[in-house]
Amino acid sequence: MGAEPPLSSSANQQGGTPRSSQVPAAIELPPYPYDRLEPLKQIALDAHGSVIDLSVGTPCDPPAESVLRALVESVDSARSYPPSIGTKQFRSAASDWFRTRLGLQVSPEQIAACVGSKEFVAGLPHWLRLRNPSKDTVLYPAVSYPSYQMGAMLAGCRAVAVPLDQHWRLDLSAVDPADVDRALCLWSNTPGNPAGGLDDLSEVAHWGRSHQVPVFSDECYVEFTWDGPPATKGQLPGQSILSSGLDGVVAVHSLSKRSNLAGVRVGFYAGDADLVGYLSEIRKHGGLMVPGPAQHAAVAALSDSASVMQQRDRYWSRLGRVAAVFNSLGLEAPLPAGAFYLWVPAPEGDAWALAERLAQELGLLVSPGEFYGTAAAGFVRVAVVQNEAHLDELERRATSH
After folding, report:
1. How far apart are CA 44 and CA 358, in angstroms?
2. DSSP 122
3. Domain extents for the chain?
4. Rounded to an integer, what distance in angstroms lies between the CA atom of residue 39 and that of residue 41?
5. Which residues contact 86 (CB under 8 A, 6 or more apart)?
6. What is the pLDDT of residues 22-56, one digit of tens each?
7. Which region holds residue 332: left if phi is over 0, alpha if psi is between -120 and 50, else beta?
8. CB-based contact 112:279 (threshold 8 Å)
9. pTM: predicted TM-score of the whole model, two decimal places
10. Distance CA 342, CA 389 (A)
11. CA separation (Å) from 372 to 34, 167, 290?
12. In DSSP terms, which residues pair with 270 in a beta bridge?
């Protein structure tokens, strides 16, 4: 998986619990990471007249026709408020998906809808702290999508990064016992964004149960797992935290990636009955609900495996093509164990210099690794989301450079 990442200390903390005798300081939000790419975008435009944007993991391929038809035909469901927990049809479709895709028996009563997975990730620490004010710490992967850390910050909690090993997997042995005692939850992300690593989720679940720390597993890329044998004949590679039982764990899934529905904002979470029940109730009081037409479309999407197989083929092909472009520039671009990102070590560890070089030479926009944690600063992330015509142009530019 390329160069070994630097290990981040679990003392890497942000936020904190203000002393009762003080007025809490106002939160100071960092710049939104992708807004920092504007200068690089201008360099690419000036040099090539157009940008090949592989910086953000936004799906660019069309949703399945059956899903679009369901969205159009569901106009009647827009008239009334949808259930916050999700319609019976949606939760049953998710239950069926768990059974057919992952070989898991998960009751619809232990599944609930969310407005895409990102809002769930960002809101979770606040909701958990309302349930247990004695805890104030969110454990999350040291190299990961920024929303895990930001969710803790927005809730006034401590965000403590869990180091990763050389395969980009959680090293739970490195977590300080003092942080375990204060932990509201542990986040896992498998396949991982940005580095594509695969945690041993049965081990992660065991750690959470043995330490009485709820584990939340972000599994939105599960259907784009490349390494590992299928669970049973006919299934794709991929695993869920729920495979080792539902107690103390919650899996979070999204239709944004697997069905190219990022703009429709549909996700779901499933697992421990007490956790799902509590989160469903508090989200109901907060008015969080997936629009009715979106849930109707999601039912069609969850029953559609053919389009997901097509998307798998697209992403695997694109990973190989873009990796070959990087190799032609003398850059190592190992293929990931899962997800659709290349995680490329920067020469001399200078990710911003590499990002600027790619913008200048190829008109290519990528994300410097520091967006995903200080332990990631020596890499760039490349999201192979653009269509084949854009990749044809990327190859042409690389050849003519």
Report:
1. 8
2. H
3. 32-62+307-400, 65-302
4. 5
5. 94, 111, 112, 113, 268, 290, 295
6. 666 777 888 888 999 999 999 999 999 999 999 99
7. beta
8. yes
9. 0.91
10. 19
11. 11, 16, 28
12. 111, 251
